[in-house]
Amino acid sequence: MNSFTNDEFEFSFIEEGFSARDILEQKINEASFSDDKDAFYVADLGDILKKHLRWLRALPQVTPFYAVKCNDSKAILKTLAALGSGFDCASKTEIQLVQSIGVPPEKIIYANPCKQVSQIKYAANNGVQMMTFDSEVELMKVARNHPNAKLVLRIATDDSKAICRLSVKFGATLKTSRVLLERARELNVDVVGVSFHVGSGCTDPQTFVQAIADARCVFDMGAELNFNMYLLDIGGGFPGSEDVRLKFEEITGVINPALDKYFPSDLGVKIIAEPGRYYVASAFTLAVSIIAKKVVTKEQSSSDDEEDSINNKTLMYYVNDGVYGSFNCILYDHAHVKPILQKKPKQDEHLYSSSIWGPTCDGLDRIVERFDLPELHVGDWLLFENMGAYTVAAASTFNGFQRPTIYYVMSRPAWQLMQQIKEQGISSEVEEQDVCTVPLSCAWESGIGQHTATCASASVNI
């Protein structure tokens, strides 16, 4: 990759001894002197580097092609490009975006099986050859409009145990796959591989095993029809935080033996994946301010007892971001978010059953239905961790509420290591390094901290 030169991306260094949490606290303190206590993010780019090193250790055979749709912030894309990642794009706009930062076309897969003809032509004119298909109609569109395409046949999976199912919309069965390969041979279209996606929030790692075995069957079909298939795309579905039922290493611990069995290295098959949330979820923390409050008292008790009065009180809090903004993940991604108090509650402070609502005039705009919280007040802050995936990318400005500002930060050791990787590639020394020992300011590693946040006075344009 070329040197970082885009002025649209700048971040602040976190000085030694401080963390991303300290920067967040600093921004909240600065807001206390203003009436504009707008919601904002702090995004730790060092966390993405840490995730990348973790990926290399856990899936050494698999090259990541980041799913741009998950979070298309230019800072994220430039960081991943510097680390050598490829990119999974779903549209002309996403292809334009990654090519605008210098990503070569061979590091892009147009992984949308349902493409508009004009966008197929755009890919052809800009050198993007790898693209997916799962139907005869798509084959014919590509044959007419992109004869040099390198097609990847997307097969269906059993994603019944995933939170977000995708095979109801995409993917060919094994029986249909043979028919499609035969049709591709008739059309003289080059099919170079197979892809699948087990669904987001996969809860059964054996789904990957079956999908890899099915892909092997399709490779064998392709060989019978004289296709030189050399690419396997195992899709996404990798968790980006630790608050999940199925951990990342539990998944990779099943994938690696399956790849060794069905696609041993001596076959020369290139294996890629399309992680999205894995890279970005834990890097982003959202801070929202309480802008309104309502006390609701249940009427069923006529007692004057103070304890009964407390127990019959519930609280409704209204904050300055909601499901039409960053919390669209609740609607679109089946996310369950949990608020974190910015101020530590007093010992033995009473907790009230509370609900949290967004700022719009729509009754659907509820963030948390019920959560026990101490009594809070207008101007207090709530924090939400793991907010980097499928949040800012789909946020709207419904009712005129603007998207939160994002403050990007990175520690100096993380920056230095990223520069080393950008210039020299991943050396064996870096690859074998225990990521837990890398002194990054990631994922709140250095804790909450009691001192005032500090960052470098100068930002770095990348």
TrEMBL record:
EC number(s) from the headed UniProt entry: 4.1.1.17
Gene3D superfamilies: Alanine racemase, Lyase, Ornithine Decarboxylase, Chain A, domain 1
Enzyme class: lyase
CDD domains in UniProt: PLPDE_III_ODC
Residues annotated as catalytic: 361
InterPro entries the UniProt entry points to: Ala_racemase/Decarboxylase_C, De-COase2_C, De-COase2_CS, De-COase2_N, De-COase2_pyr-phos_BS, Orn/DAP/Arg_de-COase, Orn_de-COase, PLP-binding_barrel
Pfam families on file: Orn_Arg_deC_N, Orn_DAP_Arg_deC
One cellular-component annotation, GO: cytoplasm
Residues where N6-(pyridoxal phosphate)lysine is found: 69
Pathway where this protein functions: Amine and polyamine biosynthesis; putrescine biosynthesis via L-ornithine pathway; putrescine from L-ornithine: step 1/1
Role according to the record: Catalyzes the first and rate-limiting step of polyamine biosynthesis that converts ornithine into putrescine, which is the precursor for the polyamines, spermidine and spermine. Polyamines are essential for cell proliferation and are implicated in cellular processes, ranging from DNA replication to apoptosis.
Alphabetical list of PANTHER family matching this protein: ARGININE/DIAMINOPIMELATE/ORNITHINE DECARBOXYLASE (PTHR11482), ORNITHINE DECARBOXYLASE (PTHR11482:SF42)
Protein name: ornithine decarboxylase
Gene: ODC1
